[in-house]
Write a structure and sequence with these properties.
Number of helices: 4
CATH superfamily: SPOUT methyltransferase, trefoil knot domain
Number of domains: 1
CATH class: Alpha Beta
Distance between the termini: 57 Å
Structural class: alpha/beta
Largest sheet: 7 strands, parallel
Order of helices and strands: HEHEEHEEEEH
Shape: globular
Radius of gyration: 17 Å
CATH topology: Alpha/beta knot
Number of strands: 7
Length: about 190
């Protein structure tokens, strides 16, 4: 067995192992309780690699209510270090059903796109905020202007790179929300 064929075989085996891990942890996820805060993370057609698991890990740490997954059949939960079993996951086939559910629950929906929208640190986030993160390469799968009430946010960037890693961007949004709506931890004893 030579180079490229061996690499494809290894990638296929890893993908199958990720699917098995997902199926095992998906059953445990059905018992997950909503996080303490009213923020929601929406992942729009992300790759099923390490970013989704890492976002679940941050969602658990930052008390996110739930994570909505659009067009994602499975992902590798291993990078989340077990967080997939703690944060409720809600699966949607497309953006419209997710949007409708969040709109009916009176959430303000934000997209985070490089160089578009108000810097996240310069806005007072509503208590019921939902943050949408798109595919690592292609961005969000819908046109925000077609959906009433969706607002655009950005994360200020000073370097030459075009964007942040999606798990890093999601963590920044969760932290900003926590700063504005989380419990005051400055007076707690260590």
């Amino acid at each position: 067995m030579s180079g490229p064929h061996k690499i494809r075989m290894m990638m296929r085996a890893e993908r199958e192992a990720a699917k098995r891990r997902f199926r095992r942890q998906r059953n445990k996820n059905q018992l997950a309780q909503p996080g303490k805060l009213d923020s929601i993370i929406v992942l729009d057609r992300l790759k099923p690699t390490f970013n989704i698991g890492k976002i679940f890990r941050s969602a658990d740490i930052f008390g996110v209510r739930e994570v909505h997954l659009i067009g994602i059949d499975f992902f590798d939960p291993a990078p989340g270090m077990g967080a997939f079993k703690w944060v409720p996951a809600i699966f949607h086939h497309g953006f419209f059903p997710c949007y409708t559910q969040l709109f009916e629950q009176e959430y303000t929906i934000f997209t985070l796109e490089p160089d578009r929208g108000t810097p996240i640190s310069q806005i007072q986030l509503p208590k019921k905020s939902a943050f949408v993160f798109g595919h690592e390469e292609f961005g969000i799968s819908f046109e925000p202007d077609l959906f009433p009430g969706i607002k655009r946010l950005s994360i200020p960037q000073m370097g030459k790179s075009q964007s942040l890693n999606v798990s890093v961007a999601a963590s920044i949004a969760m932290y900003e929300y926590l700063k504005q709506h989380g419990p005051d931890i400055s007076n707690q004893k260590e």
